[in-house]
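User: Here's a chain of 432 residues. Predict its fold as tokens.
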Amino acid sequence: KEGKAKGNESEIFRRETSKLFDTVLNNTPYKCEANTCKQPGFTEGIPILVTEGPIRERVGGKIALSWQIWFGSCGEQMGIRSYALQFTDMLGSNITVFAMKDDQGKDSAIPKEERKRDGFPADAFVEDKCSKELRGKTGECDNSLSKYKIVTLVFNILNEASFGSYWVRNTHGSSQQVEVRKVTDGMWGEWSDFGQCSRTCLSIVDNIWGAKVRTRQCTPQQNGGNDCQGDGKESIQCAHGPGDDGDVPRLCEGNFGKWSSWGSCTRSCGGGVKRRRRDCREVNCKEDDEGRTGDEDAGFCNSDDCPVPSEYSPWSQWKCTLLCHKPYMKHLTREKRTRKCIPKLPKHEFRNCENMTDLTEESQSPCTSITQFSKMVWVTSARLTGLTQVAMTGKKAWSRHGQEMKSSLPALVTDLDQKKVSRSGSLWTPGE
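Assistant: Prediction complete.
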């Protein structure tokens, strides 16, 4: 019915009436908290920024930037509906990327003219609406009720060229700028080369490895992006010198310990060998001051000539010890053989000629061969007591009892080489 409130007008009226009564009763000045109240010049037709900035978004994100332009209902403000969208890129260049010509304040039948210019963001569009639209006609302004318009720049997809500052200007002035900042995550740079290893070799004594380190730099996040994930330093174990293959450890060279005492000699004389050892606690040890690299040493010892045992000469032939002229007495004879000790130098402690006295050997059986006299004669001597028969051979004389007679007996004939016997007293010559 005519005069009846439409839509939510009753609710709006009740709320605003309540504010009015609160202000009157509390004796407190009314304070407008709307964004339009905070920016002077709005009611004068100067565009104001609605979207608070800065806006932080990643590439590929979606955002919308809004401004309001008050045009009221007075004739002098009819021309301020037209505006331009300005853009300052990241390099500082300022350009007009969009222009709107709106003369509907003069004549609602005149269509609006919009034009995108070079530099207008890709995947974006401008939405231009009045504060009041005709009922049932979306996008058409109700000029009789509208007091301002809302300009919105919508980015469906932000790209690299979209970041910068945006603002709206018209014939009455310019709005505040709103900056669209690119959100970037922290980004690691390339790894550096590994530095030198903290240990040039690996000791088998303590088995402690060294380490070498490489680093990388993080480009910090921008505008609320994520920090770099992971470590900026990497360390791996190593044990090698500069220029060596890092995958293969180099084993340390150690120093030899002290020599042990000499071991026993392999020979007591004649030149033997004695040995000694020293420890190398690493796999390899440096050569010593004498240029030796081994862990074992050998030396000569007991180089004096060895004592030589004395030797026996071969045995002589067996020889009967008695001369026999009675064959029936043969069983009483014995054979004997001899040998000599041959001394050697150096003198042996035990086997020497002073101790080797076994030089004669006598058989236990009778002689196998008896030496016979070459010639035999019987002689008698008046000077002897009794009759003594003497056998003579060579230059010796034997009694018939087998006893040797001394050459001092005057009755003996000493010159047997002349094959004769001279008389001296009562001596018999051979053959008589």
